Amino acid sequence: MIKQLKSLLKPWPIIAAILLITSFVVAIQRYTYGLGAVTNLTDQSAWGLWIAIDILGGVGLAAGGFVMATMVYVFRLKKFKPIVRMSILTAFLGYMIFVAGLLIEVGKPWNMWHCIIYWNIHSPLFEVAWCVMLYSTVLFLEFSQVIFEKFGWTKLQNIFHKVSVPLIIIGALLSTLHQSTLGTLFTVMPSRMYPLWYSPILPILFFFSCIAAGLAMVIFESSLSKRFLQHETPQHLLLSVSRGLVLFLGIFAVIRFADLSTRGALGLLFANAYETPFFWIEIFLFIFIPIALLLNKRIRSTPRGLFIASLCVVLGFLMHRVNVVTTAFARVNGGYFPSWQEFLISISFITAGFIIVGLIARNFPVFEKVEPAAEGEEEEGYVKIGWSV
Predict the structure, then answer these.
(1) Best exposed site among 117, 129, 131, 203 by fewest CB in 10 Å?
(2) Angle at Cα 104 formed by Cα 103 and Cα 109, nearest 5°?
(3) Residue 6 burial (CB < 10 Å; 0-12/13-18/19+)?
(4) What is the rounded CA–CA span in Å between residue 332 and residue 298?
(5) Does the residue 299 lie in any domain?
(6) In angstroms, what CA-CA distances link 103 with 13, 27, 55, 98, 165?
(7) What torsion do the CA atoms of 203, 184, 338, 98 make, to the nearest 10 degrees?
(8) Domain presence at residue 4
(9) Which long-range contacts (CB under 8 A, 24 or more apart) does 357-364 make?
């Protein structure tokens, strides 16, 4: 009894409880008095922190689910199977945060069903809405095998195995469509966005950035699982994921700077402007620092090194989305800065996500058996292409 009481009095559960209760009060205030009562959004800055973090950020970080599932079930890279379930769980919760973010951010959330009945096929949001609804369903079906295994529903589990590959392919197509289309939303505003973030190829940039962020999230969540759930993902699997992470970070960096050069925007990289430091924070966190860390053999060979690199990518990715949604419009939106209530709600969504992941991981067979690494597998990919430092 005393041991249970001590566990209840640990600071983190108390902090989380206070955070969630306070955010619930703010949510009631938002629905009672409107967005203006709890946000700094205006007619000039209609999209803010909730769009950047809870929606665009949450969906992008969830890309690890479709990437890992495609690698295992379509390309038959079975060695990654032990981390697929956790990736899919994280992806599913990422989309639930997306939906929750919409429910609190949209001015009239009770009208959200209109996109199902009233079709506007010329709007990117129409495609995003349908793909998110369908892909969330696919993610639930993909994760359902964990539920079937937990309760011993072998017949349903066998049925899932028969349709798993087509289901994964459909999920990958849906995710590809709406991840890129989220970037399309901003291509209609070239005169309003600062040139460091506006680009006609924003859909391509959004797609490649979300793959990198999704792979980083796989490493990040594996590190947290070791710390809080006492489940250790073998280092050779995380190193393999990090190779893909370096590849896609490199692809994104090449496309990003080639686009800036093509549009004649390289001169803005060192301009004496409000936007310049935000750009470099994004670039260093999302590209330069993690690539430098992962190309260093000594650093990437340690769990801490992989964790720091993945954390930088996650933060840099979120910074990119914040820059696209808010910083790029700073000159025309009247200087928007989020209210404390906006920060509180976003932090509460993230906190709730961690709590739900922990509860599910402790009560369902999320972690699968890991095959031992083949001799020399840990560094094979880096050595072959000359990446060892």
Answers:
(1) 117
(2) 45
(3) exposed
(4) 46
(5) yes
(6) 26, 10, 11, 9, 32
(7) -80
(8) no
(9) 357/89, 357/90, 357/93, 357/221, 358/228, 358/229, 360/89, 361/86, 361/89, 361/225, 361/229, 361/231, 362/229, 363/150, 364/146, 364/147, 364/150
What's the structural domain count of the chain? 1
Helix, strand, coil percentages (3-state) for the chain, rounded to 5, are 75, 0, 25
Is residue 56 within 8 A of residue 320, CB to CB? The reply is: no
Residue with tokens 């890992």: 68
- CA-CA-CA-CA torsion sign (358, 359, 365, 366): negative
Instruction: Please tell me the pTM assigned to this model.
Output: 0.89
* 133 falls within a domain: yes
> 163 is in which domain, residue-wise?
22-384
pLDDT band at 370; cut points 50, 70, 90: low
147-181 pLDDT tens trace: 888 888 888 888 887 888 888 888 888 888 888 99
Is residue 92 assigned to a domain?
Answer: yes
Give CA–CA dist 281/319, Å, rounded: 8
